[in-house]
Amino acid sequence: MPEPTWKPFSLATHGRLSTAEKTSLPDTAFAFPRARKEPMTDAAHVRDAMARFNQVGFVTDTERDLAFANFQKAASHFKIQMKETDWHQFV
Predict the structure, then answer these.
(1) Residue 9 burial by CB count (10 A; 0-12/13-18/19+): exposed, middle or buried?
(2) Phi, psi at 63, each rounded to 5°
């Protein structure tokens, strides 16, 4: 499993991110950093990212491995219990 790249990054606003807010985020705030898909800035966004995992297109299995590692790190940070032990359980 790859080393996670996710790092905590909080915004003053909560809820839906505006386009400008999403654009301003560092790559390390995303589950899929290269594609800049699925930002994880709070617990709700982590849960949303996990729920949408199988909807993310145009990413490789290696990127899915990284996204899963990022999920685990972000979930731990926000104290979210994950039952999944592998990204294949999301699809």
Answers:
(1) middle
(2) -70, -35
**DSSP structural state of residue 5:** -
39 DSSP β-pair partners: 30
Confidence of residue 14 (pLDDT cuts 50, 70, 90): low
Residue ranges of domains in the chain: 19-90
Query: Each residue of 29-49: pLDDT tens digit?
Result: 999 999 999 999 999 999 999
Instruction: Give dist(CA 4, CA 74) in Å, integer.
Output: 9
Token pair 């930002």 in the structure block, residue: 39
Query: How far apart (Å, rounded) are the C-alpha atoms in residues 38 and 48?
Result: 8
Q: What is the pTM of this model?
A: 0.94
Compute the distance between CA of residue 55 and CA of residue 76 in angstroms, rounded to an integer: 23
